[in-house]
Design brief:
The complex is a heterodimer of chains A (about 650) and B (about 325). By secondary structure, chain A is mainly α. Chain A is built from 22 helices and 2 strands. In chain B, strand 1 and strand 2 form a beta hairpin. Classes of the chains: A mainly alpha (about 650), B alpha+beta (about 325).
């Protein structure tokens, strides 16, 4: 028997009155994307004018032909105008004025328009993120194709050196910066509440804001092409970044903005996981994907502020001449390298951990076995997350920093392979005498381990100082991190799309095209990046358009494979668009016969996720155990939920139930 | 129920000996693989053996590759086996046996990986310290130096003595120049080294960060302005080697390379004498030798006049200037 009254305020933030929603208006009168665009354009011109007005008096601006003040202020006001147009500040101002604010329980029936607004529903934000991330990813991918086209010949032939560096920098920054939330954004925001039995996330406004900052960061980063690009690659090393032209401002503002976005996203997900678990969702029953989101969230919250600080210092160095990084004026270029990599190394685990989470979620379903060594898997995630803060100097083995610390950073870096090895143990244990079902998500999860194996092994070469002396700064490094990030994260991302799209949209993707996509992508990926290990070891540094003539055969092989990889991704785009727009083959509630809590509700999930807060009865991976309880009781008797809530959630909920 | 389903399908494969077979095949393939990597591939591993640091890096890379071989073979073999044999039989909709973990396997795995990792770290540390920093830049205060060398004099050098040969490597956008303080401090774009003599590279920059990478010499050291980044090696074979910039330094980063030469000691001494005489006019206009080069002390006009150049040839870009040229 279901309880009649849901404890409505149990998860509602204080201060709101759920009864009094705002008036309904036609969509074009309310705040939304159209006003955001207008606000952004007006904001940019206002900021640019203000920058010219205040900055033109300075000698720094007078002696050069660019005004970084104007560009930076333009971007700052652009963001402000964008957010005002979206209505981000409306509730804030209403609350200050004592007016009724939009309740987070209020599900406005806006139809398709809700995807273009500052919507507080985590499922809407998840889908916004999914589409956004796909757009960002394919934009970065097009830039990669441009790079490989240039590298078809050993000297420059298609692009000028300036253009080549613009493209390389934009590709790297697009992928490393926008892809930080490639899984936490779409899957984390959408699925975590469903997996932990919550009706909503902890901070819906912060979550929505974290998404709506990403289009801004994306467009500002792309605008660097109009400003002459930036010559530094994604690392933005000073003093080159201080010397560079106006395009550098776009890099610093966009990266800083994305930093703020991922701090907000991480903060929301961490609090949601800790505070919003349903009764019975003990830490020992938490799905591994949620563990991965928790550790990723912690990394985002702890590492990204350092990045934002570093970007802020670059901006002030370039505008107000603060000279944090200019050694002739008392600064240090090492300061920037330290700040950047103190963020930058946790960053690569921010990209790896969600992949671990997704494959740990997919493996038990398709091997039809429990996850082998649940605690080991969680320990592996935490081990990687904690150690990732103690390894950043391995990027600086040749930099001329104090050599005393080198053995220590070599040790900490190599130690990371122990918790990473846990994930391999978990996978191999789960595979042991399984009943494998080779569906498309399972193929991607298996390929994850194939690719990550090579990514991880090559990482050991880079952690070892003598071997790193040859490998550092070459295509070997490039191949290494493409194997871990593209071969790991992006394969897991596509696996996740094929696995969860039936849940998210209620639509099954075409599995034959999915298999074609998988095999072409798997073969083209390895054919692209495996030779790059050799190219690097044979002496080709990163980010060059000119290389030794004897490496042309290998480089051409790589370029052609890269084009095939692009073609394979076109198959995905075709499949995705046709499946979701044209074919729309409806999915059953639980097509994979999975035990996860998210699969126990309808597809797509109802507006409130769960009619009643469920009571979790067992872990999500109890496959093959005939005595296992169902994962949750979706309609718990009144006494159970009341008793559990009285203990778990203090406050008005106890009295209502 | 499970029995019904499986008898309906084909007879289930007997998988009780899979573990043993996997172990046997893994050991056999690993032994073959390790021997091939160590004996056949090893001698051809980059960066070759032109210098002491290159040779130590080659050894290190070979050792890591040998250790990686059983790991790669093990995981791939296991995944391949799983995909080949542990598949769902047609019509079998049942789940597999519920194994939640195995303390022995988990403990063995953790102890095994920890032992490999710790021994790698110890080996790497030894390989870092014994060949004098393994050719990597050690910063202004190097702590691992080639055995039996001193820096007794920065103004003179003779072959066969313990006084180490010093070469200042100066990176700028976008060229390398080399300064030989022990031969009157002349500055040239040619990098010449004597075979069999330990060398100390003092790497510095005039503008942004570069990275001095003498590939087959096994030396890599970042060039930071105002910082002297020291790296050591001993060339062991004569011949040419490539120098490239390994840190993105602006538009022409891709073409910032030249070649160096390792020559017999007598040829090297002769070369220093001719070159220092040739460049004497320019050398006396250069700022006095210092561990980190102050480019603002150069009177470029006088140098250009001495070389018979006009215009901005040989200029440099001040990183404090806001605009990349």
């Amino acid at each position: 028997m279901a309880i009649e009254t849901q404890p409505e305020s149990a998860q509602a933030p204080g201060g709101s009155d759920p009864g009094a929603g705002p008036r309904e208006r036609p969509w074009w009168l309310g705040p939304g994307l159209h006003y955001a665009v207008i606000g952004a354009v007006l904001g940019y011109f206002l900021g640019h004018w203000l920058g010219n007005f205040t900055g033109s008096q300075y000698q720094q601006v007078g002696t050069s032909d660019d005004n970084d003040f104007a560009i930076v202020l333009g971007f700052a006001f652009l963001v402000l105008g964008w957010l005002i147009g979206l209505g981000v500040f409306n509730d804030l101002i209403k609350q200050m004025l004592g007016r009724p604010v939009r309740s987070t329980d209020h599900k406005a029936n806006l139809g398709f328009a809700k995807y273009f607004r500052y919507t507080l529903d985590h499922k809407v934000v998840g889908l916004q993120y999914l589409v956004g991330m796909l757009i960002y990813f394919f934009t970065g991918g097009l830039l990669a194709i441009a790079i490989r086209t240039e590298l078809l010949s050993p000297s420059y032939h298609i692009m000028s050196p300036t253009t080549y560096l613009e493209v390389v920098g934009s590709h790297g920054t697009m992928m490393m910066m926008m892809m930080t939330s490639v899984i936490l954004g779409p899957f984390g925001n959408y699925l975590v509440p469903l997996m932990i039995g919550s009706k909503k996330v902890a901070f819906p406004r912060i979550e929505a804001l974290s998404f709506w900052l990403t289009p801004c960061a994306f467009l500002i980063l792309l605008s660097s092409f109009l400003l002459g690009g930036f010559p530094t690659g994604w690392t933005g090393y000073a003093p080159l970044s201080i010397q560079a032209g106006e395009g550098m401002d776009a890099y610093a503002v966009a990266f800083g903005l994305m930093g703020i976005s991922i701090i907000l996203a991480g903060f929301n997900i961490v609090v949601t996981i800790i505070c919003y678990r349903a009764p019975g969702m003990r830490w020992s029953r938490l799905p591994m994907f949620v563990w991965a989101m928790l550790t990723t969230g912690f990394l985002l919250v702890l590492a990204a502020p350092v990045l934002v600080g570093g970007m802020y210092m670059i901006i002030t160095d370039r505008t107000a001449q603060t000279a944090f990084f200019v050694d002739q004026l008392g600064g240090s270029s090492y300061l920037y390298q330290d700040l950047f990599w103190f963020f930058g190394h946790p960053e690569v685990y921010i990209l790896a951990l969600p992949g671990f989470g997704i494959v740990c979620e997919i493996l038990p379903v398709f091997t039809r076995k429990p996850l082998f060594g649940y605690k080991i898997a969680a320990a592996g995630l935490f081990g990687v997350a904690i150690l990732s803060f103690f390894v950043w100097q391995h990027h600086l083995f040749d930099s001329g920093m104090d050599p005393d610390m080198r053995p220590l950073f070599m040790l900490t870096t190599e130690l990371i392979s122990i918790p990473t090895g846990f994930i391999f143990l978990v996978a191999m244990g789960t595979f042991w005498k399984a009943k494998l079902r080779l569906t498309v998500p399972m193929l991607f999860a298996t390929a994850f381990f194939f690719n990550f194996l090579f990514g991880g092994i090559s990482g050991v070469f880079l952690s070892d100082v003598p071997a790193d002396t040859t490998a550092h700064g070459t295509f070997f490094v490039m191949a290494h991190f493409h194997y871990t990030i593209m071969g790991g994260l992006i394969f897991a991302f596509f696996g996740g799309i094929y696995y969860w799209l039936p849940k998210v949209m209620g639509i099954t993707m075409n599995s034959r095209l999915g298999k074609v996509h998988f095999w072409t992508m798997f073969i083209a990926f390895n054919s692209t990046f495996m030779p790059l290990f050799a190219i690097g070891m044979l002496g080709q540094p990163r980010r060059v358009w000119e290389y030794a003539a004897n490496l042309q055969t290998l480089n051409d092989w790589v370029s052609i494979s890269a084009f095939c990889l692009g073609g394979s991704l076109c198959i995905f785009i075709f499949n995705f668009l046709m499946s979701t727009v044209i074919w729309r083959k409806p999915a059953t509630t639980n097509p994979w016969n999975a035990r996860g809590l998210e699969w126990q509700v309808s597809s797509p999930p109802p507006a409130d996720n769960f009619e009643n807060i469920p009571v979790i009865l067992a872990g999500p991976y109890e496959y093959g155990d005939p005595d296992a309880l169902p994962v949750a009781d979706l309609h718990p008797p009144a006494g159970v939920i009341g008793g559990a809530l009285a203990g778990a959630v203090a406050g008005p909920s106890g009295t209502e139930a | 129920m499970a029995a019904e389903a499986s008898s309906a399908a084909r007879t289930p494969r007997d998988d009780s000996r899979d573990g043993m077979w996997l172990l046997i095949i893994w050991i056999a393939l690993s032994v073959i693989g390790c021997l091939l990597v160590a004996l056949v591939w090893g001698p051809h591993m980059p960066p070759g053996a032109q210098s002491s640091s290159a040779a130590s890096q080659q050894t290190d890379i070979t050792v890591l590759a040998v250790l990686a071989t059983p790991v790669v073979i093990g995981v791939l073999l296991y995944l391949g086996w799983a995909l080949a044999f542990w598949r769902q039989r047609p019509g079998d909709e049942t789940d597999a046996a519920p194994i939640h973990g195995n303390t022995k396997v988990q403990a063995t795995w953790i102890i095994g990986t920890a032992a490999i990792v710790l021994s790698l770290a110890v080996y790497g540390t030894i390989e870092l310290i014994s060949p004098a920093g393994a050719g990597a830049g050690e910063g202004p205060q190097p702590i691992w130096k080639p055995a039996g060398t001193t820096t007794a004099s920065v103004t003179s050098w003779a072959p066969g003595t313990s006084n180490i040969l010093q070469v200042q490597v100066i990176g700028q956008q976008w060229a390398w120049t080399y300064r030989y303080p022990q031969f009157g401090g002349f500055e040239t774009t040619q990098l010449m080294l004597p075979v069999g003599e330990p060398v100390q590279f003092n790497v510095t920059s005039l503008d942004v960060i570069h990275s001095f990478w003498a590939y087959t010499l096994g030396v890599k050291a970042d060039a930071n302005s105002g910082v002297n980044n020291v790296a050591y090696t001993t060339p062991e074979h004569t011949g040419q080697f490539q120098v490239r910039c390994a840190e993105l330094c602006g538009i022409w980063h891709g073409s910032m390379y030249n070649t160096g030469d390792v020559v017999p000691v007598a040829d090297f001494v002769k070369w220093t004498q001719t070159t220092s005489t040739q460049l004497a006019d320019v050398t006396k206009l250069l700022p006095p030798y210092a561990a980190s080069y102050d480019p603002t002390a150069i009177n470029m006009g006088k140098i250009n006049a001495a070389l018979g150049l006009t215009g901005a040839g040989g200029g440099f870009y001040n990183p404090a200037d806001p605009e990349q040229p």
